[in-house]
Amino acid sequence: MIDYRDVSHVRNRRRHTFPQNPEGDTRSPAQRDRDRILYSSAFRRLAQVTQVASPENAHVFHNRLTHSLQVSQVGRSIAETLIEKQPSLIEGVGGIDPNVVEAACLAHDLGHPPFGHTAEEELNTLAGTVVGGFEGNAQSFRIVTKLAFMSEAYGGLDLTRATLAATLKYPWLKGQNRQKPKKWGSYKSEEKDFKFAREFGPKERFKRTVEADLMDWADDVTYSVHDAEDFYRAGLIPMHLLARLRDNVERKHFFDDVYRRHAGEKPFFKRPDLEEAFSDLVAMYWRIDEPYVGTKEQRSKMRHFTGQLIHRYINGVELDSKAPSLNIDKELVKEVTILKELTWTYVIEAPALAVQREGQTAVIRRLFEAYSVASNSPNKWGLFPAYQREQLKLAGSAADRKRIVIDLIAGMTEPQAIATYRQMIGAWPAASLEEIFR
């Protein structure tokens, strides 16, 4: 068993500095991590980045900023609940600090590019194997360890080892885990920081820390529940039809689509198991039998529904008494899965968003082409903001310059990406000489 008290200084260590708190600063190292992330420009950017539907479409939708704040609240609540219910097991999993979990939750989507997974896939294709691809989780790790900064002496936010480890949803470098080749937690360029984060924690090669597990479950819970809420309120998910008990044609259509999408995928849930989980979920909590129009009664019932689910998923987690790991009730995993599938069927794969994604892909591709050409011609570096111009002067290869271009595009808000694209094609000349980027 790990004695958490003896290793707390190892967990709290920072890679670049290990200072005492300034006089009068009573925050713990993890609390300082949380605040560094919260006040970073990378975090503020998330207010204008897609959750599922663009934040420009309607005020009803969550964006990546509101999502991250909610994930942090859920993650912290789960950690505090475990500490209260199972204090004797905390040391056995290496310690659980609610502030570490909260900080990791705030950081988990920092690398999410404009237009979400559409841009993530396109940037990965454009980056290619020489640069090392693009992955949103690895980009988040790159931001907190290199791109965001507090000092000219080093890159990154100089977070503690515990917080860095908790951000690693996929604790391996690209290509290391053959079971999940499309996901990884760090680029090769941040390998030193990755190894630093992994020095303390599970000895198993691809096993996450428990605090990273808590961050991941909080993320799943939050976006599954609130996306379903958003799109029911927007009239896209017909929950009033899916909740019918008899002769439910809509529910059959929905499950047909789910199992079309996951055909041949292993492991995935058996259809009767998911159907039963959905029936139980509706029977326990759903009390709305008509399309959403926004009456006081409907809003009250909707808030009750989402609140009950969040409470259920916070309390459905426990520490394993036999191993240093997290146990999540399998029935709750089924429920969260089916809530995610609602968004996939009725929103993500809907024709309107499919057309939108084509346009978003074109925007990302055009920005990449223009900036890539400019990056190789110093007389065109005026196209870049000042910070990227400084980086280009230090770049030692074409691959380094390509990574700078990718970092720039991935760090844009969606309005920035669209405005820059329009200016580049001459469709929307700038109204002033003021730079878009700050």
What's this, in brief?
Helices cover 57% and strands 1% of the residues.
What's the topology here?
Layout: H1 4-11, H2 29-38, H3 41-44, H4 64-85, H5 98-107, H6 117-131, H7 136-147, H8 161-167, H9 191-198, H10 210-233, H11 239-242, H12 249-261, H13 271-285, H14 296-314, E1 317-319, E2 326-328, H15 330-348, H16 351-375, H17 386-394, H18 398-410, H19 414-424
Antiparallel strand pairs: 1-2
Notes on the structure:
By secondary structure, this protein is an all-alpha fold. Among the domains are: 4-210, Orthogonal Bundle (Hypothetical protein af1432); 353-424, no CATH class. Helices cover 57% and strands 1% of the residues. It contains 19 helices and two strands. Strand 1 (317-319) and strand 2 form a beta hairpin. Helix 8 (161-167) packs across helix 10 (210-233) and helix 16 packs across helix 19. Mean pLDDT is 89; it is low at 1-6.
Please supply descriptive tags for the structure shown above:
438 residues; mainly alpha; Hypothetical protein af1432; two-stranded antiparallel ribbon; 2 strands; 57% helix; 1% strand
- CA-atom Rg in angstroms: 23 Å
| Name of the top-level CATH class of the domain at 4-210 | Mainly Alpha
Helix/strand structural class: mainly alpha
**Element pattern in H and E:** HHHHHHHHHHHHHHEEHHHHH
Strand fraction equals under 5%
If classified by CATH, what would the architecture of the domain at 4-210 be?
Orthogonal Bundle
